[in-house]
Amino acid sequence: MAAIALLVGLLTIVGGTVGLSRLTGHPGDVARPLAKPSPAPHGSFAAPPLARSARKVARPVALTIPAIGVRTPLERLGRTPQGSLQVPVSTTVAGWYTGSPRPGEIGSSIIAGHIDSTQGPGVFFRLRLLRPGDLVYVRRSGGTLVVFRVYAEHMYPKSGFPTERVYGPTPDAELHLISCGGAFDQATGSYLSNVVVYAAQISVHRARHHYHTRRHGHHPRARHS
To answer: What is the CATH number of domain 2-23+58-207?
Structure first.
């Protein structure tokens, strides 16, 4: 319970206050076209990992979401001195929160990314377009590929963010993808909501080949969220 308490107020992808209620509408939402689907990674099946307490799995290094054209390496994210979630240095890459379980371990594994920047769309610009049934792939440093299936997508106001629902314990291995969304407040330079996509693990594969990702030398400045 102490770990959950430390996470209250954690989620502000760039800023904002976290609470405990839920928004069912999508203020300021603008329909955006889907990216051209990218190919999914391939591999042979291997036994799913045991519970987190039974076996430690390798850390995540890359994320692929074919339905929205995402293919990115993963940074390691911690907490700021103020206790909020760190954000990726670049808007073009996502990051795994090291205070959460590794993908494939029991619990809520957290991956966060920017929606956009002053120079254009970010890595999670189309996160809201994911729907139940879409697949998410996480490559781990040991070469295994963990596959998750999306089962829900929600937008929450930052003033009513369900911290325990997003960061709290789950009976199975889950992946929660987080970004900003909703209306953009020009006065504060921040988005008013957060988008969360929930996915459950369905399988683990052993890699047949190496997974290549681009190097990102340019880091556009994110808009506050």
So the answer is: 2.40.260.10
